[in-house]
Amino acid sequence: MLYSAEPINLKGFRDKPLRCTFFKQERETGHLAVVFPGYGYRCYGPVIYYPSLVLLSLGADVLWVEYEYDKELEYMTVEPAERRLWRLSDANAAVRMALDRHPYERFTLVGKSIGTLVVGDLLSEERRLHSARAIWLTPLLHNEELRDQLERLSNQSLLVSGSADSAYDPEFALRLRKKPNVRLLLLEGADHSLEVPGDPLQSLEALRRLTEQTVDFERTS
User: Fold this and answer.
1) Do residues 173 and 141 touch, judged by C-beta distance below 8 A?
2) pTM of the predicted model, to two decimals?
3) Number of H helices and number of E strands within the chain?
4) What is the mean pLDDT, run by run of 10 residues, along the chain of 221 residues?
5) How much is the pLDDT for 220?
6) Helix, strand, coil shares, percent, the chain, to 5
7) What CATH number has the domain bearing residue 206?
8) Residue ranges of E strands in the chain
């Protein structure tokens, strides 16, 4: 094994427990990837797991921020502004922990579903991440704040959506595709889990294309 895995327990929003897993390269690296999962979609799900493996194989340390908001009754009862603050507080706690450990120079942020909202907020508000590249997995393209961020931000970005994902907006995606910093991978027939319902072989093909595009994005952009 070329890297080790360390479970880390932090204090996040209002000192609530926040679990993370830190995958550290055996050799020193200047590249950190921080991964934010979806609502109920964990970091070990294939859509997140394989991009994480790509980043590890290319020499990055990888930090999984393993919030589980679907198990937090309070999360769903508070106002949207407080949910945003909750997510951002958790994200900042994890990023601070990683940067306290090592002075990284290169950053990749990976977000799945509501994790893309976290990535948008971090790129907009966290000065140390202003030049990070971003991988947006099934971004919530109907979210007005995220739409504004995606149109405004100039970070190198890979957007991955399925044509059968209810969070996908083809007209907006077409606008984004015209930006020189944005790549779009559209997986035909794939849903919000980037699976093609009833077709496991096509689901595997979607996962293969996601993995391949992640390699190419990290190597060339």
Assistant:
1) yes
2) 0.96
3) 7, 8
4) 92 97 96 97 98 98 98 94 97 97 96 98 93 97 97 97 98 95 98 98 98 96 65
5) 87
6) 45, 25, 30
7) 3.40.50.1820
8) 3-11, 17-25, 31-36, 61-65, 106-112, 133-137, 157-162, 182-187
Spatial distance between the Cα atoms of 4 and 165, rounded to a whole number of angstroms: 35
Q: Find where tokens 């508000």 sit.
A: 125
CA–CA distances in Å: residue 211 to residues 144, 215, 218? 28, 6, 11
Question: How many structural domains comprise the chain?
Answer: 1
The pLDDT, as a whole number, for residue 113 is 98
Q: What angle do CA 15, 18, 22 make, to 5 degrees?
A: 135
Distance CA 121, CA 105 (A): 20
Provide the terminal-to-terminal Cα distance of the chain, rounded to the nearest Å: 27
Please answer whether residues 125 and 109 qualify as being in contact, where contact means their C-beta atoms are separated by less than 8 angstroms. Answer: no
Instruction: Give pLDDT, residue 221.
Output: 65
- CA pair distance 156, 176, nearest whole angstrom: 12
Could you tell me the residue range of the domain that residue 77 belongs to? 3-220
Residue of 66, 91, 62, 67 whose CA lies nearest to 4 = 62
